[in-house]
Amino acid sequence: MADFLTVLSEYDIAGAYWVNLKLTFFAGLFALVLGTILAMFRISPIPSLNLAGTAYVNILRNTPLTIIIVFGLAVLWPVLRVEFSEVFTVNFFWLGVVGLTVYHAAFFCEALRSGINTVPVGQAEAARAIGLPFLDSARLVIFPQAFRGAIAPLGNVVIALIKNTTVVAAGSVSEIATLMREMIENESNYVYPIFLTVAVGFVIIVVPVGMLATYLSRRLAVSR
Amino acid sequence: MSVEDVTPVTDAPVGRGAGDSTREPLIVLSGVQKHFGDLHVLRDIELTVHKGEVVVVLGPSGSGKSTLCRAINRLEPIDEGEITLDGVSLPLEGKALARLRADVGMVFQSFNLFAHKTILENITLGPIKVKKTKPAEAKERAMALLERVGVANQANKLPAQLSGGQQQRVAIARALAMQPKAILFDEPTSALDPEMVNEVLDVMISLAKEGMTMIVVTHEMGFARKAADRVIFMSDGQIVEEAGPEEFFTNPRSDRAKDFLGKILTH
């Protein structure tokens, strides 16, 4: 056991997890913004926007994340010349964020739509009846209630995102999954403890997020 | 009953403002048609509501009266015909429609107060965001309106904390806050417990007395008798009869109106 702890201390495990958390933070933030815009598209009165929103969600949601990440690494950067930084690691990090964002935006959109479904249609009618145009109705009346009705599903999407940040290992970002592979290669005596350490780390991160989502969804529920 | 035997019986109404040609027309519906799939919910609707007039729309459920009410501020788009408000034809969508809606208040059966906003915020939202009134001024006016409908002491509560009657009075105040040219009431008391109906009707009667133009879809015959200038009776999407309230209740012309009144007034 003591030997294993010595081995562990030779690797920057906290640093690797920190990368996953940063990926979660940025991808989560951007995906929430993009997902909100997509949800607005999907409920807007303009048919072409509906179509665009629906098409985006159905294509991105049904594409494996690994494919999207590899696309970023193999097409977006070398072919389409999307470069965030001259420093390889920084560039890969942001390409990873882009991949996670475009993928998870589809899920954020759908979680929000489930929240929108908790808002009675009369709320939108009342907003229109006092003369609010569509964007104001959405911004002031529908989405504030929809977000509060969507906290539980949004929490699930965030949890999926946290775990999916390991997929960017396929895009050469050094995060915890990359580090785990490296550790297993170097320390073949400790395969199981290494694996367990990494798994438990995720449980420690994810469980509070789930509890927070449950708490908030009760606390912020709109009483009708 | 076939469609042929319901030739509209339009009579010179005896109500206070009805048919009064000296008053300006405010809401005019002409040749309005509306379908829900195969169902023809509004047929050849011709209706003129004058400034200051109170029109009560009666009829059995499914007769199209709510649809008529909702068509006037285009919560339901119509298939054919024209609706004008103060001489302006109802725009199709977008900002112009939003502006027009701001001029027509609407009170719903299920109140539809904004559930995440306080009573006060419910009333100030429209004036601040649509009419660009200064928040302090909007708040002051909102408090005066809440005072008027008797719920000023609930200003900082959420809608769910109020009784149905209180919520509906707040909804009326919300409509009034926009200083509308007319208010549409879509069965405003149908979702209320019986003991709360009167508190809402009292507010509506006082509005009627003050000369607010109102179109009221309701089953409250007492209100129709007391406050209406004119009663419109609808059946199967048509305006079957149009008369002053006394005339309508004591001497209905059409068989359908007789049948309807026979069913609701015998108890």
Helix tally of chain A equals 10
Quantity of strands of chain A, as a count: 0
Counting H and I runs of at least 4 residues, what is the number of helices of chain B? 9
For this entry, what is the oligomeric state of its chains? heterodimer
Number of strands of chain B: 11
H and E string of chain B:
EEEEHEEHEHHHEHEHEEHH
Shape designation of chain A: globular
Average pLDDT for all residues of chain B: 89
Helix content of chain B: 25-40%
The largest pleated sheet of chain A is described as: none
End-to-end C-alpha gap of chain A: 56 Å
Largest interface between protein chains, with number of residues from each side = A-B, 22 and 32 residues
Strand content of chain A: under 5%
CA radius of gyration of chain B: 18 Å
| Pattern of helices and strands of chain A | HHHHHHHHHH
Instruction: Give the C-alpha Rg of chain A.
Output: 21 Å
- The main sheet of chain B orders its strands as 1-11-10-4-9-8-7
Structural class assignment of chain B: alpha/beta
Structure description:
- The complex is a heterodimer of chains A (224) and B (267).
- Chain A is mainly α.
- Chain A contains ten helices and no strands.
- Chain A has helices at 2-9, 13-43, 47-61, 65-76, 88-116, 121-129, 134-149, 151-164, 176-186, 191-219.
- Chain B has helices at 65-72, 94-102, 119-129, 135-149, 164-177, 194-209, 221-227, 245-250, 255-265, and strands spanning 9-10, 25-36, 39-50, 54-58, 80-85, 88-89, 104-107, 182-186, 213-217, 230-235, 238-243.
- In chain B, helix 5 (164-177) packs parallel to helix 6 (194-209).
- Chain B is globular and about 55 Å long.
- Chain B starts with 8 loop residues before the first strand and ends with a helix.
- The relative contact order of chain B is 0.19.
- Mean pLDDT of chain B is 89; it is low at 1-19.
- Chain A binds chain B through residues 45, 120, 122-123, 125-133, 136, 140-141, 144-145, 148, 222-224, and chain B through 73, 75, 93-95, 98-106, 108, 110, 112-116, 125-126, 129-130, 158, 160-161, 171, 174-175, 178.
